[in-house]
Amino acid sequence: MSFSTDVKNELARVSAEEECCQLAELTALMRMGGTILISGRGHPGMNFTTENPAVARKVLTLIKRNFKLRTEVLVSRGRRLKKRIVYAIKVAPAPLVSELLAQLGLLQGEQLNVASDRSLLRRLCCRRAYLRGAFLGGGSVNRPEGNYHLELVTENGNFAETLVWAMKSYGLTARVTDRKNEYIVYLKDGDAITTFLQVIGAHDALMQFENIRVVKDMRNQVNRLVNCETANLQKTVNASVRQIEKIRRIVQEQGLSDLPPALRETAELRLSYPEATLYELVDLLGGRVGKSGINHRLRKLERIADEMEAEGTNETGS
């Protein structure tokens, strides 16, 4: 079972107390998965389809709770490759359906309303229910182990913009993109997704998301620290190898006896302890010289070796 299905199953059990919120949730559900049918007598009917049985029960409950309409539930197998089971809620054409559609804002007079539903969403609680219905009808969210991604998919551009507006009420900055004939409203930030789950009432899913997210962030932090330490160690090893090569060049050309005492001491120490860090070299000298002092001496030894190499090249060339 996908994480999206877990979230929807939880949301299907969330019940809005206010009638206005129930209508707002049903409106979003119908925008996502509903169709309006007109009978020969001119009376409208409604169909709603979903692959989630919990969502189908939620739609049926919202319709029966507020309207005494004759409904029918049909179960069939889809025609796509996976042939998933599809649940259809059918509301037979009747004059009362017009009243339902009008209260949902889907019908204005005798015209279908394909524009905005903002007139139904004056209260924050209604926007919360509206977003919940939108996710139930056409939403998905990745498991937090992977990339953070939540999206709501619709074929109605005005509906997509209304969703963005409703999210903004809760401080969520959603983006919209189009794919073929669909509009995708999406969030890609972990904090934004947890806020959205809290807003729509998916508290169990929110806790699961946050728990996995904490473990994931901790693991990433440990990996970054390990990578940083590995890089620093590699840098130390490379510097040590380079320094030893330069000092051996000096030994080969003239020996260490002609060097100033401080440089000779540092050169002998580096040759004796090739794997020691600068801090360890400081300890070996009894703290008489700091890290910057040791580093300065080693750089000076490198410059002496480079000068010897340059002189040798010039003599060969002449």
What does this structure look like?
- It is a single chain.
- This protein is of the alpha+beta class and 318 residues long.
- It has two domains: 3-201, Endonuclease I-creI (Roll), CATH 3.10.28; 223-313, no CATH class.
- Helices cover 57% and strands 15% of the residues.
- It contains eleven helices and ten strands.
- The chain has helices spanning 3-11, 19-33, 53-66, 95-103, 124-138, 157-168, 190-200, 203-253, 261-272, 278-284, 291-317, and strands spanning 34-38, 44-50, 71-77, 85-91, 107-108, 111-112, 139-141, 150-154, 175-179, 182-187.
- It has a four-stranded antiparallel β-sheet with strand order 1-2-4-3. A four-stranded antiparallel β-sheet has the order 7-8-10-9. A two-stranded antiparallel ribbon has the order 5-6.
- Strand 7 (139-141) and strand 8 form a beta hairpin.
- It is rod-shaped and about 110 Å long.
- The N and C termini lie far apart (79 Å).
- The mean pLDDT is 86.
Q: Which key phrases capture this entry?
A:
57% helix; 318 residues; alpha+beta; 11 helices; 15% strand; 10 strands; four-stranded antiparallel β-sheet
